Amino acid sequence: MMNNMEELTLHETQQISLNVLKKVIEVCEKLNLTYWITYGTLLGAIRHGGFIPWDDDLDIAMKADEYEILVQYINDNPDECYPLVVHNKNTVKNCFYNISRVCDIRYNYVFTEFNYCSGAFIDIYPYEALGKEDERVNWEKWFLRNTYLKKFINMSCSRSIFYGRNTITKIANLPKCIYSKFKGNMFFLKKMDSYTPAEWDESEIVGVPRWGAGIYKHYYKEFIIIKFEDIYVNAPKEYDLILKEAYGDYMQYPPKEQRKPYHGYKASRVNKKNV
Length: 275
Hints:
By secondary structure, the protein is an alpha+beta fold. 38% of the residues lie in helices and 26% in strands. The chain has helices spanning 10-31, 39-48, 64-76, 78-81, 136-157, 167-172, 174-183, 185-192, 239-247, and strands spanning 2-7, 35-37, 59-63, 84-87, 100-111, 117-131, 205-207, 215-216, 223-228, 231-236, 265-273. The strands form two sheets. Strands 1, 2, 3, 4, 5, 6, 7, 8 and 11 form a nine-stranded mixed sheet that branches. The chain has a two-stranded antiparallel sheet with strand order 9-10.
């Protein structure tokens, strides 16, 4: 028995990710959980009516407590949720991210930079309360700290001890890369997770402390239904403010040289055949 791999095009990976999203939405609706599209997926929905043509994944977000319910449900009900599985630091080795990926295991995505493989996936971001506006200095320091930790996590999971964009940075990063591989990814992931969230109802700022900058909670007070490819999805009513804060003039396309997939993986469909 051998596994034959049929390589997928970008368009095919987008459609497969869309199918993963559809299945996740079904589970969210069954459990009465609220999700919304975010990051490049929100931008794609508004600017393109679906995927950004060169985007290679899907992003949704949820309140952290509902995120935990969703992840636990998929883990506890493998037959019902098949072919979906959850990838995060608790379920896979060499995890280089501190969110969860819901993967379709009928596909194989081999990441070129990291010693990690997944199925076709969507990313799910847990939004937590960060506190009051006048506490901004505290969580901005936290984001800067986590940005630094992310580099060590990436180096700990990289395929090579030489990590960087060019020869100079690879040589400069060598001591850090050796140290990060010695300590292991979980050492740094746990440090990122040591943040204590504020109370949601009292907080003015929310976000993903292990990932990116905070944003005003009232931007997520109401949601609307918008079209994404051939389905309709939840989006924040204040999407314009969110996208302007994240991307500036978001209706403008980036330069042509930046219009390329971000994640760096080789995607294949797994075909098991007797040979």
